[in-house]
Amino acid sequence: MNAPLDTHDHDAPIFAPEAFRLGADEAALIDKARHFGARVLAPRAAKHDREATFPIENFHDMHPEGLLGICVPKQHGGLGASFRTYCLAAAELGRYCGATALSWNMHVCSTLWTGALADDLEMSTEDRAAHNARRPLHYRRIIEDGAIYSQPFSEGGAAAAGAAAFGTEARPVDGGFLVSGKKIFASLSGAADYYGILCTERAEGAHASRRNTLYIAVPASAPGVSVTGDWDPLGMRGTVSRTLLMKDVFVPESELLMPHGVYFRAATSWPHMFLTLSPTYMGLAQAAYDFTVAYLRGEVPGTSVKRRMYPTKQIAVAEMRVMLEQTKALWFQAVSEARPNPTKEQVLRAYAAQHTVMENANALAAKAIRTCGGQSMLKSLPLERIYRDSRCGSLMLPWTAEICIDRLGRETLYEPGERDD
Ligand SMILES: Cc1cc2nc3c(=O)[nH]c(=O)nc-3n(C[C@H](O)[C@H](O)[C@H](O)COP(=O)(O)OP(=O)(O)OC[C@H]3O[C@@H](n4cnc5c(N)ncnc54)[C@H](O)[C@@H]3O)c2cc1C
Q1: What is the pTM for the complete model shown?
Q2: Which domains does the chain possess?
Q3: What's the mean pLDDT in 51-61?
Q4: H helices within 248-310, ranges in order?
Q5: How many angstroms does the Cα of residue 152 sit away from the middle of ligand 1?
């Protein structure tokens, strides 16, 4: 990779390996992500934000670095990163380009669900054998060809929040399924090679049930697949999350990402998977803080006036630091304890961590603008993009900030099955 050295290349890691007791391999991988973010993503971020175009060249550059296969198990040629290592690496990318980190998350999750997570999941012998026979196909595409997967789950109804069966349906036919439906906010639309969708497997006349959720890769080139609508949002503009339509798309059985019915059990027993949208925003929180410190010290390129001598600025930075440290500590704990069948306390902490990161990233960015002043919100500087991108975090299903609060309150006060009548 010959990208020029960026000024960010001297940034310290968000989570210092010694302080957070990271293993050497883990620290090296996170370091690799940080350097990649600083050298490759940062210089391209403004253009993709301005034009609302997908940063496909970032993904092409990830391929030789092994980053497309960060969570592909080592025996399948990937880097075999754990859930936590991935989260820490993704936070480093989020510092430099929120849209790339968020899109990368959609790609990586398709290898986490099928990889480390599936390995930890209880499955019947038949399901395990079928899964192990099918998944090398997906991994080979990613490792050898640099294929990009996405994760369009949302439909605009209650399904993405986990409250109803998906309206997108897969009708079993000879050798596979006919898939029909619509996905909104399909990040990487038009750029992904495979759309890893959730849909309801439903034979003619059968009842739609969440238990029959099917997780399957729809090839972008399959007849009946189309991308529609425009994409001109406030933030995360480079994700290009347009609407994906599927009409009687034949998808062979070999494209299953998980065996029949296993996704529902995976989602239930691995709730921390829904924290995977947060690393991007952890990175944005750090970026807002870093920018403020550099700006007040007169070190942001093109703005040499120092403003650090004013007590109000010092207080603002101190308050930002407190908020950042609180955010980091809680989030690090939550991503460190991710595992199948977590305790109630761990799940509640995961909601609290998600809520904290998503809300604090935007609060820190808002405070950064107020503290640095008018010039800091000019489009020639990254802060206003960080502010807009960070606004999106608390909207992301299934763990929006509101849903986290709903669940925290309810699940603290009620044990499963408890009622008041
Ligand atoms: C930049 C960006 C990229 C995205 N990329 C993807 C992607 O790649 N794949 C994907 O699947 N989705 C993606 N999403 C979609 C996202 O996860 C949500 O589906 C989307 O933001 C929901 O918008 P909505 O207005 O339809 O929400 P609604 O479902 O209308 O919800 C509105 C609000 O109501 C509340 N709410 C909703 N349901 C419940 C409930 N059951 N209980 C209590 N409160 C509830 C929530 O707080 C929510 O914020 C992306 C979103 C953004 C902003």
Answers
A1: 0.96
A2: 7-147 (1.10.540.10), 150-261 (2.40.110.10), 270-413 (1.20.140.10)
A3: 98
A4: 262-269, 278-296
A5: 12
